[in-house]
Amino acid sequence: MKNKRFNLLLIAAVTLVAAWSLWPTWRDYSLSQQLNSIKSAPDSLKYVLSNRDEIENARKKSLKLGLDLKGGMHLVMEVDQVDLFEQKAWNKDSKFTAIMKSVRTKASQSDARVLDILSGEFKNENMRLSRYFYDIRNSDQEIVKKLEKESEDALNRAKEIIRNRIDQYGVAEPVITTQGSRKLIIELPGVSDENRVRNLLKGTAKLEFRLLRDPEILLRTLDRLNTYVVQNNAAPQSIAVPTVSPSVSSQLKAPVPAKPATARTLYDDIRVYQNGTAYTTEHSKDYVVSLLRRSDIQALLPQDTELLLSAKSDVINGEKHFALYLVKKTPELTGGVITEAKATFGSQGVQPEVLMAMNSEGTSKWARITGANIGKRIAIVLDGAVYSAPVVQSKIPSGNSVINGIESLEEAKDLEIVLKAGALPAPVRIIEERSVGPSLGADYIRAGVLSLGWAFCAVSVFMLAYYKKAGIAADIALVLNIVIVLSVLAGFNASLSLPGIAGIVLTIGMAVDANVLIYERIREELDGGKALKSAIEMGYDRAFSSILDSHVTTLSAAFLLYTYGIGPIQGFALTLMIGTAASLFTSIVVTKEIFSFLLGRNLMTQKSFG
Fold first, then answer.
1. Under a CB-based contact definition with an 8 Å cutoff, are residues 280 and 269 in contact?
2. How many other C-beta atoms lie within 10 A of the C-beta of residue 215?
3. How would you label 354-375 residue by residue, b for 16+ Cβ within 10 Å and e otherwise?
4. What does the alpha-carbon distance between residue 105 and residue 116 come to, in Å, rounded to a whole number?
5. How far is CA 352 from the centre of its chain?
6. From the first residue on, what is the mean pLDDT of each consecutive set of 10 residues in the chain (610 residues)?
7. Which residue intervals of 207-272 are DSSP H helices?
8. Confidence (pLDDT) at 236
9. Whole-number CA gyration radius for the chain
């Protein structure tokens, strides 16, 4: 009696846990359907914001689909270790620049370790690494070991930061692995906005707070650059000169001086206005960026300054304009002090922005910086682009700051994600990309579900036709078996793939096989003249050893497949292991308790087993 009560409690507990584990999957589907039914963008945005926590929680805990079922992206990304080593160097000169240029060229043409290429270049130049790296007293071998550690740490840190960004973005069950010394293999199931994911992964997320130089200094700097460009014919002649509409040209600080028809000045691409601000048009943006990156142009800038463009454009007379800022090269504060970031709307509820909070160190520094620069502008720079440059109105003791100038809530959310995850130790770039379209994934889902449905129907009909009432018990156990498999996948955030569906189909066959062994034993006992209750007990007892042996063997094989296999093989092995364990439980415990229930109410006879 105690054993029976324990079995009933165990079945109830397993069923409740399975239902609880699969509830977020149902809730995620329900919320998605409600969101898809909302037609207007403002209403859908309002719905997402009001139900944000519930949507994110349901999506996080729901059953995940693999890349082959849901569609998505396969990426190979490379950590720029040349840039990393350049950051670690000191006392840089033209010789070092030439060496690193050669290293970058060779690294782009080979899969060899960047560190090996770097040390080889120094040997060819008969130079010691200590001239630029670490302590002058270190030997080349010691420096190589230190740089090797830096390289490994950078790859692992990049992997974790990218994983954090992907997790916060909401990609279910991403697969991120390292390959060699500088590559990351990334699989992202369910991704539809591929361009957004690219930007999210590539952004270094280097956040800096920099002081703006006075407008007068900006204007003098631009005049100096313009003189240099004209005198040295620094600008290429093939770029068309953008036209200036009368309404815009009337705002210019001074008329552009007359010039020969073939000459090109800086002011053809950069427009200076009476309020001391400068802009470049979308047409000239790429040229201006390439010009400002040149070493000869940078040498003309005031000491410890840098010219940066705004991340977002202003539209003037239907034309996009990007503001130009002259900022201090040395940041007052960096993003390392940011502890929290949150995408939201501004005070008027229209313009998206990102609120940031700082740690205690950042809070004290921010209070000192803002207190010492009241009335001045501080640029908020992310990955070399100025998002905003507000005027400091008063001292800010709370450590809070805001990034605005953001066009959409999605962009604000992406900024929130990269700021929370932290900055990459070095730039990363995508060197290979493949996509599995949602339509192909949907076809795979239909094929997989169809195969699963046909397998279940065929087995269920066979059990009903051959074993009558006993077949009903087997079918109930079969349904519970599938539910347990799906609930375990959902509960442990594992993904269901096409090979996983194949594993479930195989599990169906194994589960029924166990029931067939038991039922045949029971029929043998009935043929031997045993009473129905006694025959059922004897049938389960005598079939148990055979069932246990077959299930343990299958579990062992599945475990080896999961341990030594990769990708699809692991997906198949995982569902097979879960299904095999569930099959042992449902075939031995569940069906026996169903028979006990039916026997207690005189609902079974010898004919119930066919």
1. yes
2. 16
3. bbbbbeeebbebbbebbeebee
4. 14
5. 22
6. 75 90 87 79 72 78 76 83 85 86 87 87 88 83 88 84 75 74 81 75 78 90 89 52 36 42 74 82 87 87 90 80 90 83 72 83 89 88 83 84 74 74 76 71 75 87 87 90 90 80 86 88 87 89 89 91 78 88 90 87 77
7. 215-232, 246-249
8. 44
9. 33
Total number of residues shown for the chain:
610
Identity (one letter) of the amino acid at 117? I
Token code pair at residue 287: 């040229």
DSSP-derived 3-state class of residue 474: helix
Instruction: State how far the Cα of 573 lies from the Cα of 540, in Å rounded to an integer.
Output: 28
Say if residues 56 and 417 touch (Cβ distance below 8 Å). Answer: no
Residue type, 601: R
Q: Which residues pair with 435 in a beta bridge?
A: 73
Residue 147 vs residues 80, 86, 87, 129, 569: alpha-carbon distances, Å: 14, 11, 11, 10, 37
Q: How many Å apart are CA 546 and CA 559, to the nearest integer?
A: 20
Q: Which of 451, 432, 486 is closest to 65 using CA atoms?
A: 486
The two structure tokens encoding residue 501: 């569906």
DSSP state of 419: H
Q: What is the 3-state secondary structure (H, E, C) of 419-448?
A: HHHCCCCCCEEEEEEEEECHHHHHHHHHHH
The one-character DSSP state at 170 is T
Distance of CA 119 to the CA centre of its chain: 34
Give CA–CA dist 74/436, Å, rounded.
8
Q: Where are the beta strands (DSSP E) in 23-90?
A: 64-65, 72-79
Closest CA to 66 of 171, 161, 167: 171
Phi, psi of 66 (to 5 degrees): -75, 175
Q: What angle do CA 523, 524, 528 make, to 5 degrees?
A: 115
Q: What is the pTM of this model?
A: 0.53
